[in-house]
């Protein structure tokens, strides 16, 4: 699969085996095994970078490859338990 050069931000609410009352209402809860697959596939397409690095690349201009940032907007426990260790 080929993806156009650019900075892509992928949003997750939680990475957990269990839906919380918050994520059930808004969606966006991803099981840890599927999240790991997402990360592996994204890394094959381009680097996963912190948000500030992605923003700086856009400011500089001339993105020549796809790059990805992962955004966790709710700070739920599953993000720390399941996503954080995988991304370190």
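Sequence proposed for the structure above (88 residues):
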């Amino acid at each position: 699969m080929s993806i156009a050069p650019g900075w892509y931000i992928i949003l997750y609410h939680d990475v957990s085996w269990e839906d919380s009352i918050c994520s059930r209402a808004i969606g966006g809860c991803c099981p840890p095994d599927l999240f790991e697959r997402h990360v592996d596939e994204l890394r094959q397409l381009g680097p996963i970078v912190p948000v500030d690095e992605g923003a700086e690349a856009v400011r500089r201009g001339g993105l020549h490859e796809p790059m990805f940032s992962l955004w966790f907007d709710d700070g739920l426990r599953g993000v720390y338990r399941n996503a954080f260790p995988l991304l370190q």
